[in-house]
Amino acid sequence: MSVLPRGLKSVLAKSPHDVVILSALRTPITRSYKGGLKDAYPEELLSTVLKATLDANPNLNPKLIEDVAVGVVLNELGGSKAARMALNHTPGFDTNSTSLYTANRACASSLQAITLVAAQIKTEMISVGIGAGMESMTRNYGTRAIPVDVWPELKESGVKEARDCVMSMGITSENVAERYHVSREDQDALAVESHARAARAVKEGWFDKEIVPVNTRFQEVDKQGNKVGEEQRVTVTRDDGIREGVTLEKLAKLKPAFTPEGKSTAGNSSQVSDGAAAALLMRRSTATELGLTGQIMGKFVASAVAGCRPDEMGIGPAIAIPKLLHQLGLKNEDVDRWEINEAFASQALYCVRELGLEKELAEGKVNPDGGAIALGHPLGATGARMVSTLMHGLQRTGGEVGVVSMCIGTGMGMAGVFVRE
C-alpha cells in the first residue's frame, strides 16, 4: 500500500506526519582553482553552513538535531571523518548526541542526503535532522572523478555498460547532443540565458536570503601556480562564476572541450565549483510541539531515482521526473517552478524538450534564476543548493509546487518534489 500522497490536493494538504523544511541555506558557489573559495576546505564550508543553520533557527535547541546526512563525492574516505569533525567543531552542536553520515550518489548526493533524512523522519527513526552537501573540486578533482585503483576486469568488461561507467562526462554530453540532435547554437543560447538570469538574480538580490558568507583564506597565485604576495583573510558573499553580458558571439568562438568536432564547450557546460549547502528538516508535529510552525518554509514530498544508459547519463531527469510525478499523481501543469541541473546544455535541453517544458523554459519557470552553467556545480552540494534556490524562489514568487532534478554520472537521474507554505 502506497504511503505517498496522490494528486495535487493531497500533495498540498498538511499532515502532522509531513517532513517540513525550516531553513535551506548555502554558501556562495565559486569557481574552482580561481574563485573566492579555492583555498577553503570542503569541511570548512560545511561547518559554515551548519553554523548558519543554527543561527537561522535560534529557537531550536541544537541538542534536538539527531542526525546529519552530508552528500559528498570526491572527499577522501567518503568525507565521513572530515564531515564529522566539522560538525563537532561547529559551535552549538552537541558533539556527543548528534550523529552524522555521508552519502554519495554522485551529482545527486545532497538531494539523496535530504531524502535519507526525510525517510528517517517519516519512519520515526528521528524527529529532527539536517540534509547537507559539501564539495571542494579545487582540492579533490585531480582524477576528474574517475577511479584510479579499480578491478582491472571491469575496465575490460564484455559489458559495455560496465565500461561506460568511467566514460568522461563530456563524452556523454556529446553522445546526447549527437543522438538527440541538440545543436551547438541551441546549447550556446541556453548558456547565454543561464548567465543572464543568474546575473539578474544577483542584481535584484534574489540570492541574498539563501547565501551565507564564508570567512576564509585566499592566496593569489600566478599562471604557473606560484604565490603572489601574502595569504589574505577574505569574506566571500557572492557566487563568482556568473558572467554578466556573455553573448552568443563570444560563446561561438570557444573550441569544443571534449572532441575536435564536438558541440560541448567550456561555455555551455557546468562549471567546476566549490561550495556547501544544508536544509533543516523535522516532522510537522515536532515543529508544532516546539512552537516553530512560523519558521516552516515548506515540505519535502517525495523523491525518485531512475536508471539510464551510462553513456548518455544526461537524460536521467527526463526519466526520473515522469516517474516521480506519476507516483504522486501530478502533471507538469501542477508544478510552479522547475530546477533542472545544467550539467551540460546538451542534456538540459534534451530533458526540457523530452518533458514538454519548452514553454515553461521560455516563460522562466525552468531555472528562472539560472542554472549550473552560470552558478556552478559543486558535485556533492548541488542538490541541496538547488533545494535552497527552489524554496527561496517559491517564497519570493508565490508558487506552491517545485521540482528539483539532476542527471547522475554512471547513468541515473533523480528528482524531488517540494511544496512551499
UniProtKB/TrEMBL annotation:
It catalyses: an acyl-CoA + acetyl-CoA = a 3-oxoacyl-CoA + CoA. One of its GO terms (biological process) is fatty acid beta-oxidation. Its cofactor is K(+). Residues 19-285 form the Thiolase N-terminal domain. The keyword Acyltransferase applies. The active site is at C107, H377, C407. One of its GO terms (molecular function) is acetyl-CoA C-acyltransferase activity. It is an enzyme of class 2 (transferase). Pathway: Lipid metabolism; fatty acid metabolism. Residues 296-418 form the Thiolase C-terminal domain. It comes from the Eukaryota. The keyword Transferase applies. SUPFAM superfamilies: Thiolase-like. Belongs to the thiolase-like superfamily. Thiolase family. This is acetyl-CoA C-acyltransferase.
